[in-house]
């Protein structure tokens, strides 16, 4: 879902497991309550893990790997999440498609600025709304850069 040439959104730059959990959760479009429900724990218990106030048990790590379709190493140590990489790839493909459709030629740097902006904005939207917003936002950004 997220990488192209590519710039990665590295979890390795995030120093704590709790912060990585928050990034993965938000990338998946889940609230703390949603993720806690999927883990079959209370929201307040989940919050302890995001705040690094409790060690994450192996049983929950395994569930997180399934929920995020990621491996334990990446969750524990950082590195690019397949979810994020796939999303970057998806957005990059949309940008390329729109550039071709609109017959616009821009620099690689400008392309990455558009991809980065759409990526950041997509984290703020619920997953269902994010895809429909992408094309409109990409068109708008490309017209501004032109």
Automatic annotation (TrEMBL):
Highest taxon in the source lineage: Bacteria
Keywords per UniProt: DNA-binding
Stored SUPFAM superfamilies: lambda repressor-like DNA-binding domains
Any one Gene Ontology molecular-function term assigned to this protein's record: DNA binding
Spans through the membrane: none
Signal peptide location: none
Domain HTH cro/C1-type as annotated: residue spans: 21-75
Protein's name according to its UniProt entry: Helix-turn-helix domain-containing protein
């Amino acid at each position: 879902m997220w990488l192209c040439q590519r710039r990665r959104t590295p979890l390795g730059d995030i120093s704590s497991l709790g912060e990585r959990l928050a990034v993965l959760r938000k990338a998946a479009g889940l609230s703390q309550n949603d993720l806690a429900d999927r883990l079959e724990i209370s929201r307040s218990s989940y919050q302890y893990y995001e705040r690094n106030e409790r060690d994450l048990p192996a049983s929950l790590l395994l569930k997180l790997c399934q929920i995020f379709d990621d491996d334990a190493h990446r969750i524990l140590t950082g590195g690019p999440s397949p979810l994020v990489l796939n999303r970057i790839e998806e957005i990059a493909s949309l940008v390329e498609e729109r550039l071709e459709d609109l017959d616009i030629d821009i620099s690689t740097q400008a392309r990455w600025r558009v991809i980065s902006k759409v990526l950041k904005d997509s984290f703020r939207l619920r997953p269902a709304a994010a895809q429909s917003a992408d094309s409109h936002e990409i068109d708008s950004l490309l017209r501004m850069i032109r």
